[in-house]
Backbone:
């Protein structure tokens, strides 16, 4: 079987839902609804935060950054996922695959980083409310946003470059509807030890470190809340964290589930990891705008204000 180096780049074949190829057109309907919900919901959140002066606060700036990340994550997978379901467009070139993989992992790391920044925001707001505005200034929020992007880019660039040195001489069939680092790496006939170690290091120093600091933030938040004398004030303080806690759960539970399936569910039907992988990338962008719209009263008021404004100008 021929080996493919950089001079002869392989073309990979993406996979839809194994065993359900006959139903791809029907399966595309709920996927279209999810993508439409995610893109419209996050665009609406972003528009409201940017145009409503009362929402020009650190918490909502971080929420707009989360929505931007979710939009990027959706766009990164939309073309290949729907292309497979609609016209069976499975082929993807090596460079296009690496580009898609880079952006999927970049936006995933950015989402984890933003959730950590939002945990810090809640900690400052509850433990030191009088200095909240002076600690989280516009300049500092911009610096945090830049750090989020830079962190993901710096960590992922070597990971992509390490894949370019590999040879591919086995099957070129990927197990997902998009390019995923472990999936691409497994197709190589070269020594992938460095890639595996670096990939594990990326996970540990992004989602792993972020989850630990998010947990630490909530330990400190709980301690601060318990020091508040009034039960009503304690309830009010903790209620501001509910949306963020839910967002963290929505992000990390599918991630852990996907890792669990890949490692331990070897004999599970082939469509199980594919479905979980799609859920992992789609559920957070779909649920985050819905959850923040339902749980956050200022967002609700801004949406009602926008609807009223549009209604009076029809």
Residues:
């Amino acid at each position: 079987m021929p080996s493919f180096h950089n001079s002869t780049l392989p073309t990979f074949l993406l996979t839809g839902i194994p065993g359900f190829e006959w139903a791809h057109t029907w399966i595309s309907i709920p996927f279209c609804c999810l993508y439409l919900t995610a893109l419209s919901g996050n665009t609406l959140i972003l528009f409201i935060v940017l145009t409503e002066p009362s929402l020009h606060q650190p918490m909502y700036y971080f929420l707009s950054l989360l929505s931007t990340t979710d939009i990027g994550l959706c766009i990164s997978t939309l073309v290949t996922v729907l292309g497979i379901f609609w016209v069976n467009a499975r082929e993807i070139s090596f460079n296009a695959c690496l580009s898609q993989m880079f952006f999927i992992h970049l936006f995933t790391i950015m989402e984890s980083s933003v959730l950590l920044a939002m945990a810090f925001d809640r900690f400052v707001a509850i433990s030191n409310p009088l200095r909240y505005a002076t600690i989280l200034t516009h300049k500092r929020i911009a610096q945090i946003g830049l750090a989020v992007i830079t962190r993901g880019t710096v960590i992922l660039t070597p990971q992509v470059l390490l894949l370019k040195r590999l040879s591919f001489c086995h099957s070129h069939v990927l197990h997902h509807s998009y390019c995923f680092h472990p999936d691409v790496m497994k197709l190589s006939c070269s020594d992938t030890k460095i890639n595996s170690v670096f990939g594990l290091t990326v996970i540990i120093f992004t989602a792993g470190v972020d989850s630990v600091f998010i947990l630490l933030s909530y330990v400190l938040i709980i301690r601060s809340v318990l020091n508040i004398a009034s039960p009503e004030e304690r309830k009010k303080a903790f209620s501001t964290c509910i949306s963020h806690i839910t967002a963290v759960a929505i992000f990390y539970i599918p991630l852990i589930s996907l890792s669990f399936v890949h490692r331990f569910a070897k004999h599970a039907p082939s469509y199980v990891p594919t479905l979980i992988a799609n859920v992992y990338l789609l559920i957070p962008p779909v649920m985050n705008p819905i959850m923040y719209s339902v749980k956050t009263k200022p967002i609700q008021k801004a949406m009602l204000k926008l609807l009223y404004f549009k209604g009076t100008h029809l």
Remarks:
- The chain has one domain: 12-283.
- DSSP finds eleven helices and two strands in the chain.
- The domain at 12-283 is CATH 1.20.1070.10 (Rhopdopsin 7-helix transmembrane proteins).
